[in-house]
Amino acid sequence: MARLEGGTLSLDIGGSGIKGMVLNNRGTPINERVRVPTPRPADPDALLMAIAMVVERQPAFDRVAIGFPGVVEFGVIRTAPNLDGDWSGFPLADEAEQLTGRPCRVANDADVHGYGAIEGKGVEMVITLGTGMGSAVFTNGCLVPNLELGHHPLTGAETYEDMVGQAAREAVGIVEWNQRVSSVINQILPVWNPRILYIGGGNARHINFELPVNVRRVPNITGILGGIRLWEDQAH
Question: Judging by beta carbons within 10 Å of its beta carbon (0-12, 13-18, 19+), is residue 79 exposed, middle or buried?
């Protein structure tokens, strides 16, 4: 397939899967999403091998955007609480550039998810429900990076992630988990006062209660579609 000028390979790294597709300049996918399981253990070498498996199944692209489940500063990983091995200080953007031969930008996965969801007006917030709980906040389209709300205590010593992450959903069952998600939403709204709170991630599909009027569920593919805006944000 001929290269599309400006085509962006967008990758979403999660605790259970690594997903990717190529987007054109308008942010529209030009191929079907490719998914491979996140390796176990998910250390840097194993993860790069899995990324290579996704890359080799893509059409041509000119640049790469990666959403990563942890704190990222200018393409360098600082934390990776749901992965394995020593990620602190790992230059993922540089490694991905060597792997693909294309320039790469890396940001927190919830931040990229937010790029794909927001309207760019007022305060907008995102939480992602998956292996853990990601979060992001934007003001008039500008990102405040690396908001790790999921690791903040919510009830006693239990964090948001302890309450509504994948392990909690499996442990307490879907009814109790939905009650917890509702409590998380009710905790967030009066503190952060977002114009819109978006809920994404693989487990958002399990929400079975009526959401408040300013809370919107967004599809999991949003975490890939945000790769275009990651390249548009000059702060990166």
Answer: middle
First to last CA, the chain: 30
String of DSSP letters for 37-79 = EPPSS--HHHHHHHHHHHHTTS---SEEEEEESS-EETTEE--
Closest CA to 105 of 226, 236, 12, 228: 236
Handedness of CA 55, 75, 200, 206 (dihedral sign): positive
Rounded distance, CA 223 to CA 67, Å? 7
The domains found in the chain, sorted by start residue, are 8-111+224-232 (3.30.420.40), 120-219 (3.30.420.40)
Determine the average pLDDT of the residues in 119-147: 96
Tokens 């548009």 -> residue:
232
Reported pTM: 0.93
- Eight-class DSSP state of 190: H
Pairing of strands 8-13, 63-68: parallel
Query: What are 40-86's pLDDT values in tens digits?
Result: 999 999 999 999 999 999 999 999 999 999 999 999 999 999 999 99
Cα 185 versus chain centre, distance: 19
The radius of gyration of the chain's CA atoms, rounded to the nearest angstrom, is: 17
